Amino acid sequence: MDVIKHPIIFYLFGIIPVRDTVIMTWILMAIIILIVLLIKKTKPNLLELLIEFISGLVGDVLDVDNLNPYLPMLGSLFIFLVFANILSIVPGLNSPTADINTTIALSLIVFFSVHYFGIRKKGLWGYLKTISDPIYLLPLEIISQISRTLSLTLRLFGNILSSDLIVAIVFSIVPLIAPIPLIALSLLTGILQAYILTTLATLYIASAVEINAEDEKMKQSGKGRKLFSRKEALNGKS
Questions:
Q1: Which residues lie below 8 Å from residue 220, measured CB to CB, with a gap of 6+?
Q2: Between the CA of residue 175 and those of 8, 116, 199, what are the distances in Å?
Q3: Judging by beta carbons within 10 Å of its beta carbon (0-12, 13-18, 19+), is residue 126 exposed, middle or buried?
Q4: Is 104 within 8 Å of 153 (Cβ atoms)?
Q5: Alpha carbons 140 and 33: distance in angstroms, whole number
């Protein structure tokens, strides 16, 4: 079936193979851009509602003072996943997330984003101390990081591929009315999977950037010592 096979369409520069999944992703990005421009021109309030929804989704999980550094990545991930998961309901198009290469790429983006935001929040040394405290649990932490990346990859790939397969099989048997409820189910599954993966990505980032009570206490005590030393220096000068 076309849902499973991902043939090479052409070679870029005569070397790099470009499969149909890449073409579908390009089409998907063009569709998203056109829809956003159309909504911005006709119903700008809808964009505000979308931003508020994503902010609420992220804010319910991520306990930080400022969500702005995280919204572009997590918001883009959610919007892309919603459209990518349901693209197959359009005749002649396939969901990019039904290809494991796409889900691996998305999972790797989440993987590196977690460490990027963790280092950005705590500093390189502080973040390394967080994931290696105590040191004998570091191997388990590494295994956990790898396993949850694989879990994101396989969960999304399996759900979208199975949904597309069911619709394709039923449509080949009963091509008129029967697939309509399954298409609705596929639509619901795609949106739900986008919500779940975005929530999991937010949880992983939250575990990397949130400062526990002990760290906060040490941070405040460090600030207190700096202020005290500055006051002493000022008193000495006076």
A1: none
A2: 28, 48, 36
A3: middle
A4: yes
A5: 41
Q: At 164, which amino acid appears?
A: D
| Residue 57 identity (one-letter amino acid) | L
Question: What are the tokens at 191?
Answer: 């949106």
Q: How far, rounded to the nearest angstrom, does the alpha carbon of residue 201 sit from its chain's CA centroid?
A: 5
Q: How far apart are CA 157 and CA 135, in angstroms?
A: 34
pLDDT tens column, 21-43: 889 999 999 999 999 999 888 88
Model pTM score: 0.81
**CB under 8 Å to 100, separation ≥6 — which residues?**
153, 154, 157
Q: For 14, left (φ over 0), alpha (ψ -120 to 50), or beta? A: left
